[in-house]
Amino acid sequence: MKTIKQTEYASADVSQLEEKQNGMPENKGAERAFTELERGVYAALETYSNVHRGSGHNSLVSSQLYEHARGVVLEYMGLNKDRYIVIFCSPKRTSELISLLKPGSYQTITSREIGLPLGITAVAVEKKALPKGSPTECGGGTARLVAAGWIIWNTGPDKFEAGTPAIVNVIAFSKAMLLLKRYGKDIFKKLQGTDLGITELLYKDELEQYSGVELMEQLRKTLIGLGMIVPTLEGEKPFVNLDNSASTPTFQPIWNTFRQALRLPERRKQDVVREVKAICSEILGAPLDKYDIIFTKNTTESINLVSESLGRSNDRDTEPAVLISLLEHSSNDLPWRMASKKSLVRLPVNAEGFVDLVELENHLREYNQDHKHGKKRIKVVAISGASNVLGTCNDIDKISPIVHKYGARLLVDGAQVVAHRKVEMEKDDIDYMAFSAHKVYAPFGTGVLVSKKGLLNYKPDEMRQICTSGEENIGGVASLGKALVILRRIGFDVIHEEEQKLTKMALDGLSKIPNIRIFGITDQNSGSFDKKIGVIVFETKDILHNKLAEEMFQKGGIGVRYGCHCSHLLIKHLLDISPVLEQVQRVVLTVSPKTQLPGVVRVSLGVENTKEDIEILIQVLNKLTSDAKRKPNGEQKKALAQAETDFQKELEEFAQTAIHKVYAYAE
Q1: Which is it for strands 343-347 and 106-110: parallel, antiparallel or unpaired?
Q2: What is the pLDDT of residue 594?
Q3: Are 523 and 529 in contact (CB under 8 A)?
Q4: For residue 628, which of 64, 419, 542, 645 is within the disulfide window of CB 3.0 to 4.6 Å?
Q5: pLDDT of residue 4
Q6: Confidence check: pLDDT of 359 > 70
Q7: How far apart are CA 305 and CA 307, in angstroms?
Q8: What is the per-residue pLDDT across 107-140, written as a single tens digit (0 to 9) for each?
Q9: Which of the 8 DSSP states describes residue 392?
Q10: Distance of CA 327 to CAs 242, 259, 393, 490, 537, Å?
Q11: Residue 153 · residue 146 · CB < 8 Å
Q12: Domains, the chain, ranges and CATH?
């Protein structure tokens, strides 16, 4: 990857000296630095997507921005990039990581040290000192391939950055480091606070007079990155984001809350935390007198906290087991299997993606009533609220009574459900729920764990550390609150209805394209269809999943996700991967880590999507599948190869322009 020339940063000390000589007041310099920081972060949001996990222009740019941030940190710390690698952690996870490292093999720097409440710690570790074996925190992104009985872990920093990282906060952190070199190392500590009231910060905005469908339509106009024009093989086109299950973009009112929260005085921050907890409590139907609401870095960290808590059980008469379904994302699978002395019980799903309630009760009866498995007892049933692959929403209201009938507790992975459907934790008797702000249009590094009071097995000082770690990212907490307020004003019934219209439209179009196979619920007249969010996965007979996703953005400007979607067991089940072939994959991936394994393409919808997006999707897929049947001659192959070469240059220029816009100084 090309990087911005060093000379663009080399003037930092000179500029700082000139400003001191010119007598610039400290507060004026701080204001200028913060304005420059805001400009860079806003530019990053214009092309925001999840990193390393999708196709399309936005995923490419965000990935390069995120990786570029590692280099900026090393440069700021004066460390050799050939010797060190940077791992970005939450404050809590930092202590766990460095406990595995030898003294002298690492250095750390925190966002708090540079004067910004971003909740980020950068740990620069000697590459040769990276811990071997299993990571202390596991989930999405930490593994390259997962089977029921084994795991091939990722390498490098990905292994230690479980779940979706605080991408935007990390970019802000690294941008701030460049500004420290320009304006002085304490410049953000000199920034004057802005003491906004809670009402103004979380409830007031330019759209407050709207609600329902009208609010959704007006909100779309404030999408950061709206109308982004991207290069394709067929000329410039507007970018179409159909990858909302990986991560969601944000909107102007939510961004305003984030940036304003960074300037709040310390005395105001706990007021924000309390108010956002109240918002979460109301949205999730989890009364604060019965539930604890804890802010974390993402869904993965939240589920790891529950898993670790279960592992601390003092019950010596039984051995804890955990029941999960075949639907589960790695973040609701790996934490349970990695904790010591626990057994994992897997519940199958039907072709549409629903668990069998009879089978669920049979398992619970065998373990917890009939004691057919010795001392093992199912202590937790961990189920996704909505599948990130099939979009199916299991009947939690029916699952919960069965779980509690046999003395187990229910955890719901709410990562894919909170932005789409109304959640009722108390009504459905849910013991734990985890979700992430980056799935609800606030991609600023905050996760949430909601737990019935008294269920988490941590000492008071440990709980304080957990809470302090998540609450340090006050911008992330505040923007989550703002996003939930806006979703509530739209109405979850409205969101569901609009999403269903687009899902039906997409299924209609896809069903008419030859050789496309759609997985999960396809019958729109089925009683199950109302239990589906806007997630559709498919494959084609003529084009491999990775190639199809690549061509969707190369020729149509569409960003999607392809592969196993961190749900390896479910994808292998859908594609009928036999145990023998699974072992072959294990060998192949060990020998050749970049080998592309079988997978599917996923389209996932958000509140910013419209029928025009679906029309473009169907048009592009029709053309791609039609073109796949044609066999180009020699001259045509040569022309296509040259066109792709030229496009790659355009794409690289697009990415470098976007990176420069974030990291370079404004003139």
Answers
A1: unpaired
A2: 76
A3: yes
A4: 542
A5: 33
A6: yes
A7: 5
A8: 999 999 999 999 999 999 999 999 998 898 999 8
A9: B
A10: 21, 37, 11, 29, 14
A11: no
A12: 7-195 (3.40.640.10), 289-471 (3.40.640.10), 492-652 (3.90.1150.10)
Contacts of range 202-210, beta carbons closer than 8 Å, 24 or more positions apart? 202/257, 202/272, 202/275, 202/276, 202/279, 202/478, 202/481, 202/482, 202/485, 203/485, 205/253, 205/256, 205/482, 205/486, 206/252, 206/253, 207/253, 207/486, 208/489, 210/489
What average pLDDT does this structure show over 419-446?
98
Give the C-alpha separation, 336 to 148, whole Å.
12
Are 499 and 614 in contact, with CB atoms under 8 Å apart? no
Is residue 665 helix, strand or coil?
coil
Question: Residue 502 in contact with residue 462, Cβ under 8 Å?
Answer: no
What's at 11, amino acid-wise?
A: S
pLDDT higher at 156 or 45: 45
The two tokens of residue 635 are: 């001259």
The DSSP annotation for 184-226 comes to -TTGGGGPPP----HHHHHT--TTTT--HHHHHHHHHTTBTTT
Query: Is residue 249 scored above 90 in pLDDT?
Result: yes
Structure-token pair, residue 516:
């496309």
pLDDT for position 26: 65
Distance CA 125, CA 85 (A): 5
Q: 168 near 476, Cβ under 8 Å?
A: no
In whole angstroms, what is the distance from residue 430 CA to residue 398 CA?
Answer: 11
* C-beta separation of 58 from 47 below 8 A: yes
List the one residue out of 392, 15, 308 whose CA is nearest residue 179. Answer: 15
Residues 39, 13: Cα–Cα separation, whole Å: 21
Q: Which of 585, 537, 540, 581 is nearest to 562 (CA)?
A: 537
Q: What is the mean pLDDT of residues 87-92?
A: 94
Quote the pLDDT of residue 3: 34
In which residue are the tokens 């991936």 written?
589
Owner of token pair 């592969």: 563
Q: How many residues does the chain have?
A: 667
- 141: amino acid identity, one letter: G
> Does the pLDDT of residue 77 top 90, yes or no?
yes
